[in-house]
Amino acid sequence: MKEKLFVMLLMGTILVGCQQENSTDKDQKEETPTVENNQQEETPSDQEKNDQQEEQNKAEEASTTEDKNVSDEEELKVDENGLLIVDNPKSVEVIVNKQRRLPDGYEPTDLVEPNVSFYAEEGDPKRQLRQIAATALEKLFEGAKADGLELVAVSGYRSYDRQKAIYENNVAQNGQEHADKYSARPGTSEHQTGLAMDVASAALVSVLEPSFIQTEEGQWLEEHAHEYGFIIRYPEGKDDITGYSYEPWHVRYVGKEIATEVYEQQTTLEEFFGLYP
Ligand SMILES: [Zn+2]
């Protein structure tokens, strides 16, 4: 009777093992010394094996489903300029910045034009975003409209070649230091991911300046972007972390869950993923 009860108890702990790994493991160890029968002493070791197997399975599962920004950080390849080459360019969690660039020739395969107001002319590639971000942007603009505000999309996807031209032009006009502060080296622009859009107030369409935050649209964007899966990617006073001055107009799609956490913690993507010590 006692044996049967023990086996039942054991099966119970195996079944709930996933949810209560720590407590059952502890309970099991405390229970073992009270068992005198040899045969039963073997059983707990099976249980331990099961626990170990479960832990291993869980670890394997985690390494494939968890974001790679953190776990593979030290395994990333480094290019000739000392920049890390990200290995998850298609992830909505990808972090591209002045230290981390997209692989050579990366181009999203699902670029579309969201159905929103644009500043750029029809057919301009900067009207494009990846599908998931485009759908979210449409909802963001609808949300603003419902609150009586009109946003306009200024600049979304930017190819490697386009970024290269912008950067080299900036260097030629303003010098290397200025260029590195205000524009991204080719491969390091978040716009190349197809997940970022520069957004302006329809009334002040050409104003991509910090003063955008003083407009009602800028305020609205700061307060509501996360509800649609976007973050203000370069917040004020975080230049040292993001590598960029305040850009209240630059939103980046990361999905609602991460966007909400980043918003609530008033943090940056780098800090959120532990890439900033
Ligand atoms: Zn931007």
Your description of this structure?
This protein has helices spanning 2-15, 21-31, 38-65, 68-71, 131-146, 160-174, 176-182, 216-224, 239-242, 256-264, 269-272; strands spanning 77-78, 84-85, 100-101, 111-112, 129-130, 151-155, 196-201, 230-234, 247-253. It has 277 residues and is an alpha+beta fold. The strands form three sheets. A four-stranded antiparallel sheet has the order 6-7-9-8. A three-stranded mixed sheet has the order 1-2-3, with no helix packed on it. A two-stranded antiparallel ribbon has the order 4-5. α2 (21-31) runs antiparallel to α3 (38-65) and α6 (160-174) crosses α7 (176-182). Residues 191, 196, 198, 250 line the site of zinc ion (ZN).
SSE blueprint:
Blueprint: H1 2-15, H2 21-31, H3 38-65, H4 68-71, E1 77-78, E2 84-85, E3 100-101, E4 111-112, E5 129-130, H5 131-146, E6 151-155, H6 160-174, H7 176-182, E7 196-201, H8 216-224, E8 230-234, H9 239-242, E9 247-253, H10 256-264, H11 269-272
Parallel strand pairs: 2-3
Antiparallel strand pairs: 1-2, 4-5, 6-7, 7-9, 8-9
Helix pairs in contact: 2-3, 6-7
Keywords: Carboxypeptidase, Hydrolase, Protease
Domain D-alanyl-D-alanine carboxypeptidase-like core: 127-256
Biased composition (Basic and acidic residues): 23-32, 46-71
